[in-house]
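hi support,

uploading two proteins for the ticket. first:
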Amino acid sequence: MKSLQIIGKGNYRIIESELASPLEDQITVLIHIVSTCPRWDMNMMSGKDMFDASKEPEYPLPLGFPGHEMAGTVAEVGSKVTAFKVGDRVAALEHLVDPGAYAQYLNYREHELIKLPDEVSWKQAVSFELLKCVLIGLLQFGDMRGKSMLVSGLGPAGILALQAAKLMGADRVTAIDINRERIEFVNSLGIGDAKHAEELGGERFDLGYDCVGAAASIQNVLERIDHHLVIFGVLKGEVRYADHLWFKGIRLESYRYRRFETEDQALLLDLVVNKGLNTECLQTHHVPLSEYGKTISLLQSQQAIKVYAYPQTDM
């Protein structure tokens, strides 16, 4: 099979390798579509560690890494697999590091996949791993019904959070960014209210969901909410929790990753299938994996929200 491998800063190749047979508890997936996770892709190709930009990744990276958002068809199952069968349509729920999903096939375990209904398309499903992560963070707020929320950042996570929070019961949801083209694009989709960060005026919100991670973004949200802020983006810099926030009882909380259980999967599918959460809008550009350098350029210039490829034909 073929896989993409990043071999150094700005360098990659497509290589042939043997597909490992699935272990007794594994599922082999023939991958139909993959999508970028922009920050991971840009960091790995620019020589920066995902969580500490002062460090460089250890090259060459594992085969297929950092690809982790994918959808495909079950091609083979191990003897102890009970939840999936050959021919099932599935999407990834977990971020596998070694090897990754920029490949034609990959082996998974049962909890790392979600079975797709027939009405969910490949482009809708390919970024379910990201939607899963966004929902885990939103569920940290508890009951959002009747509350207002400010979402910071209109990258892929923010676009999903803007929609999901409203569909999960929030009364008023507004997303902010500083990229006016991105704001215009989101508003043109009719999926929610997007504004420039400077256009909020005196608006206040009950809840805040930061999808940027930069300290300045978090600080801005903190000063505009009255109850609870969850930081979804990877934190960069120091956030000041001042005494006036303490006196108001504002809760500042980091994202807490956990296993995505059966009831969580049901929520995800209900939001997409029955409530109209638009996941396909994230997939703005198609570029073959053999032209991965172009993919990185589109992400760095913010022309693309996500870039997708078809591993069976795009190598």
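and the second one:
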Amino acid sequence: MSAHISFKQLNVFNAITQHKTLTAAAETLFVSKAAVSLSLAELEKQLGHPLFDRVNNRLILNQEGKKLLPLADELINRLQHINHVFDQDQGLSAVLRVGSSDTIGNHLSPSILSGFKQITPQQTQSLFVSNSAHICQKLIDYELDIGLIEGKPHHPDIIAVPFSGDAMCIICAPSHPLAAKEHVALSELENSEWVLREQGSGSRDSFIQNLAPHIKQWHQSIEVNTTEALINSVAAGLGFGCLSNIAAQHALKSQRVSKVNVPIEMPREFWVLLHKDKYQSPLLKHFIEYCINWGK
């Protein structure tokens, strides 16, 4: 087996793992599709193994490819670090790919990234907002450098460190009879309709684990995939909602929805996530430290 694997080949491999097609990878790298195809073919020949399964014009990483992925990721990041090591910012000039779950992404991450940018010049940031399960999967696939989510994941390849927290609350339409009550017993939520986030959402998981066991009969009225849609659905009278205090604060203040005062505490921790095999560049280490200090 030849040992002449090039940085260009690893870049092509990395781009294909993220974009799943030769065409999309070529567009990202600003080269032709033929050049990407040739580079991949050379790499697979040198390693003596195919790295992807071809499925309906898409390239899906196979077991051999999964072996190479963390090594390629580390080499690419180390080479980028070398390019910047003599800069005044000591290697902190790079792209930071941050993934955040819905509540954190919309309410906390912009402030975190803004504060970090002020103390760490010359870096570019990308913020991907989705549900917690999707953020975890993108970390596992090396498509993100770091994740900030609600709820601790249980995946053997993910390291989770708590950095902040919040509590969940129950909301209803202002016209609902329970909106005017100072104290609401959990028994008053029997046979209730609920607006829930989609599977994989931290908010939904928190409802299922912390609140649903206290209600014998409840029904899902509608499933939505954003917090804003949940708030609007509750305001329209489609059911109760269970979401983060942080996410609910503006809607409560503007009286679009009302808080249901139930005698139950629903604290929730926020977590910094990393792939256990992810190379931690100086920029990434600095950002992890910043997030943890920000939470304090």
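thanks. also noticed: Residues 63-84 form the longest helix (22 residues).
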